Amino acid sequence: PGVPSIILNRESEVRGYCRGWPTTFTTAKGSWITDTSGRKYLDFFAGAGSLNYGHNHPVLKEALLDYLSKDGITHGLDMATVAKKEFLETFEEKLLKPRGLDYKVQFPGPTGTNSVEAALKLARKATGREAIINFTNAFHGMTLGALSVTGNSMKRAGAGIPLVHATPMPYDNYFGGVTEDFQWFERVLDDSGSGLNRPAAVIVETVQGEGGVNVARYEWLRALADLCARRDILLIVDDVQMGCGRTGPFFSFEAAGIKPDIVTISKSISGYGLPMALTLFKPELDIWTPGEHNGTFRGNNPAFVTARLAIETFWADNAIELETARKGEKIAERFEALAQEIGGLQHRGRGMVQGLVFDEPELASAACEIAFNNGMLAETSGPSDEVVKLLPPLTLTDEELNLGLDILSDAARQ
Ligand code: PMP
């Protein structure tokens, strides 16, 4: 079916995905997406991590259709609505309380980037300091604040220089797997000549998705949290991509045993691919004055409805967490074996975010192209797009998982 000419000619050159997947998609269900010729593709991209429970999950769809059929409110700014009240009740009872977490919830706007912007602004307001520490290969979004703490030079280039003051530090394993004990960080913080202003906050991903599936060890994250606590620096965990169960637990940082001061959540929170974002922060950080940080699309009520149902359906027990660990292990084993078999490959991952790292970046894109031709969507990530990153729905069946791994293994061999 190809990409329609109106899209090729009218939509800006900035479009990306239709280059890698040159077809026109029409419907999607579970782990599958269909194009206009009726061809089905196994979706190991899942809306860049926004579809952790697959496309059009029947329980969520029914709730959404029921809500709309009764003229439920769709757009609510930050008015009080029943859909919002019920979402917050469920979020508190089913997610926060069982985990011993106490966070105030801000609805910062529709996207992950909005959540990051609110987090950075709040950290700066709360501390009265302006500098932010970010990490090599970080990705936090495309607006100027979020872009300032993003590493990717291609994405930064068009924004002009300087961006907002941010100082990148090396992420875990940046120096070839050597255990960094944060002496470097302590040293520059103590050194008045280091050029580093005392930072307001550190922003970190527990696994860098866009940065190439770079996995921070739990002890590294604990050392970071400890340093932030000792130095009175706020710790922001950006859980936009790794939250909502992608690495196993609902909040990816749970497994490290840390409690960040501020957390960003978006992507899969609605459970249905609907725009929704949360910024969570410790209650004492709720120093906003009313209306100080607003936005028109803070109240996506259909998203509240599906988000509540997603929590109730998937997070009443820890079954999905165990399944994610089991399936992730399976992908990891297959990738390790593949790396042994064909060389020029490495594997990295945690839970259901798994990457196949190619020595030669063009081979990663070629593998994705072959996989597409054989009926599967997977995307590349990393600074040179050298990593095939798998983000399948957490709910996919073992048959679907095996099929996807067969297709990708074949593509890698070719
Ligand atoms: N933070 C992280 C860790 C992300 O992966 C992304 C999106 N890839 C964002 C922020 C930005 O989210 P959005 O694209 O929804 O604005």
UniProtKB/TrEMBL annotation:
Cofactor(s) this protein requires: pyridoxal 5'-phosphate
The EC number(s) this enzyme carries: 2.6.1.76
Pathway: Amine and polyamine biosynthesis; ectoine biosynthesis; L-ectoine from L-aspartate 4-semialdehyde: step 1/3
Superkingdom of origin organism: Bacteria
Keyword Transferase carried by entry: yes
Keyword Transferase: yes
Record InterPro entries: Aminotrans_3 (IPR005814), Aminotrans_3_PPA_site (IPR049704), Dat (IPR004637), Ectoine_EctB (IPR012773), PyrdxlP-dep_Trfase (IPR015424), PyrdxlP-dep_Trfase_major (IPR015421), PyrdxlP-dep_Trfase_small (IPR015422)
GO terms classed as biological process: ectoine biosynthetic process
The protein's enzyme class: transferase
Keyword field: Aminotransferase, Pyridoxal phosphate, Transferase
GO molecular function annotations of the record: diaminobutyrate-2-oxoglutarate transaminase activity; diaminobutyrate-pyruvate transaminase activity; pyridoxal phosphate binding
UniProt-listed Gene3D superfamilies: Aspartate Aminotransferase, domain 1, Type I PLP-dependent aspartate aminotransferase-like (Major domain)
Pfam family, one: Aminotran_3
Family membership: Belongs to the class-III pyridoxal-phosphate-dependent aminotransferase family.
Protein name as annotated: Diaminobutyrate--2-oxoglutarate transaminase
Chain's gene name: ectB
